[in-house]
Amino acid sequence: MSDLGRVRRTLAGLVTLLILSGCSQLNANTPSESPAPVSTTPPSDGAVSMAGRAPLTGVPVKEVPTRPALAVKISNTTDAHPQRGLGDADLVFVEPITGSTTRLAAIFQSKLPAQIGPVRSLRPTDAALLGPTRGIVADTMADRWVLTYFEKVTDVDDRGTLVVPPDTYRIDSRRRAPNHVFAQPAKLLTLTKRTAPAPYFSYAPGIAESSARLGTPATSVRIGYGGSSTATWTYQAKTKRWTRAEQWAPHMIEGGGQVAADNVLVLRAAPDHSFPQAKKSMSILDFTDTSGQLQLFTGGKVVTGRWTKAGVNDPFAFTGPDGKRLLLTPGTTWVECALTTMAVQVGRG
C-alpha cells in the first residue's frame, strides 16, 4: 500500500474515534481576523447597496450578522438524505467529485441551524469556491495532499473533525457510516476570530430589476452529472422560486420540505489536471485564473453570461449578456458546478 493510501485509511478510521473519545485538539494555526467593509455608496448599474443587507443573500435585515461565513461539506449520496440544516444555507455549491457522485459545500451566515450534515471531506475544488468567503469550513478532513493544498492556498480556517474539541461534531447513531457525522455551528464559530464575509454576488432590488429582464422564459433545467445522475430544478410560478430534485426523488431536507432557491447558477468549468496525486476518477474543476460560461435561472427566466476568477481567494466576477455585472434576485442561491462535458438541458414550457 502507498503512503497516500495509508494516510487515507488512517484518517478515515480516526474520524469517528476522535469525535467519540475526545482525544482531538484545536488546530495550532492562529485564526486571523478578516473584516469585510461594505460600501454604502449606491452602485450606478442598478445593483443595490449592500448596507443593511445580509452579505450572502442580499436580503434586507434589521441587524446585519457579524459572524463569519461557515461552509460545511455535506454528503449528497442517497443514504445521506434527508440532509440536516440545509434549508438555512445562504449559498450552496454542488460539486461533481467522482464518477456520477456530487457533494455539497453549503455556506451559512444569516441563519445558523443547530446541526448540519452529514459532513464529509474536503476536495481540491473547494479552495476556489470557499476562498472568497475568508471564513471557516467544517469537514471530515481529506487526503493529506488535499489538506496541504487547501491550507497553503486559502485564507479559510479549516476546522475539520480531527483538529477541534470533541464536542464540536456529533455522531448520529441512527445514520450509517460514513454519513453519520454532524457539525454544530455554534461550537464551530467559537473556534475562529473571523468576521462577516464580503458579498459573493451583486443583487437587484427584486426579480423585476434583476438580470432576468435580459433573459428568456425557462421552466426547468437539468444538469447531467454522469451516468443516470441528474439534478433538476423546476420553476414554481406561485412562489417565484426554483425547487430541486435528484434523479431518484425530490431533494428533501430533514423536517424542512423540498430544497428551494431564488437563484440557480450553472457554472461551466474545465477539468483541472494539475494535481498529480489525484486519482483519475476524481473530478476537479478549474476555477482559478480562468473564465467560463454561466447560466442564471431566476424569476422564471434564464440568462446567459460569463464568470471570471483570478486567484483562489479572489472573488468571482459574473457578467450578463450585455457585459455588465450579473444582478441576482435577493435570496438563497444554489450553484451547480458542471464540467464543460456535462449536459445541461433547459426546459422552455
TrEMBL record:
Q: What keywords are annotated for this sequence in UniProt?
A: Signal
What residue ranges carry the coiled-coil annotation? none
Name the residue ranges with Polar residues bias: 28-43
- State if Transcription regulation is listed as a keyword: no
Q: Which Pfam families match?
A: DUF3048, DUF3048_C
Ligase recorded as keyword: no
For region Disordered, the annotated ranges are 28-62
The DUF3048 domain is annotated at 56-193, 222-335
Which first-to-last residue range defines the signal peptide?
1-28
Name of the molecule in the record: DUF3048 family protein
Q: Which organism is it from?
A: Kribbella antiqua
Q: Tell me the classification of the organism that encodes this protein.
A: Bacteria, Bacillati, Actinomycetota, Actinomycetes, Propionibacteriales
